[in-house]
């Protein structure tokens, strides 16, 4: 890992699902997106991602994977505590990408201090996949 990278860690409520982001950016610069879709509103979820960073998800066997909408992305939900902590997606070019919950991170207040409200409900699948491929974080590793 280059020495100007910082590691940011987080977890679901019970701690079974662990998130680790390596990034050269600050949480304030990465920010968070308060998605207005029905699933995210039910969870009060704000999502963060860094396309220049690297994400790892360790589920320790506790993940339920939930698909909705275009059924292309999978929400990572802890089977023990019920918290959705990440969403993953495989791009057309084969890359695994992900977003993570700002609320799950130890530095949540810094991520959430720069939150924008997003509504992607009018997006076509093509636009949605192009946006994800630009903005989501490369997923280095996810344990099932
Ligand atoms: Zn949990």
Descriptive notes:
It is globular, with a radius of gyration of 14 Å. The protein has 4 helices and 11 strands. β6 (63-67) and β7 (74-78) form a beta hairpin. The protein has helices spanning 27-30, 38-43, 108-112, 125-135; strands at residues 6-11, 18-23, 32-35, 46-48, 54-58, 63-67, 74-78, 84-90, 96-101, 115-118, 137-143. Strands 1, 2, 3, 4, 5, 6, 7, 8, 9, 10 and 11 form an 11-stranded mixed β-sheet that branches. The protein has one domain (6-143): Metal Binding Protein, Guanine Nucleotide Exchange Factor, Chain A (Beta Complex). The mean pLDDT is 92. By secondary structure, the chain is of the alpha+beta class. The chain binds zinc ion.
Low-confidence stretches: none
* Small molecules bound: zinc ion
Order of helices and strands: EEHEHEEEEEEHEHE
Shape: globular
Can you identify the CATH class?
A: Mainly Beta
Count of domain modules: 1
Oligomer: single chain
The rounded Rg comes to 14 Å
Looking at CATH, which topology would you report?
A: Metal Binding Protein, Guanine Nucleotide Exchange Factor, Chain A
Query: What is the first-to-last residue Cα distance?
Result: 24 Å
Instruction: Quickly count the helices.
Output: 4
Largest sheet: number of strands, sense, barrel closure: 11 strands, mixed
Helix content estimate? 10-25%
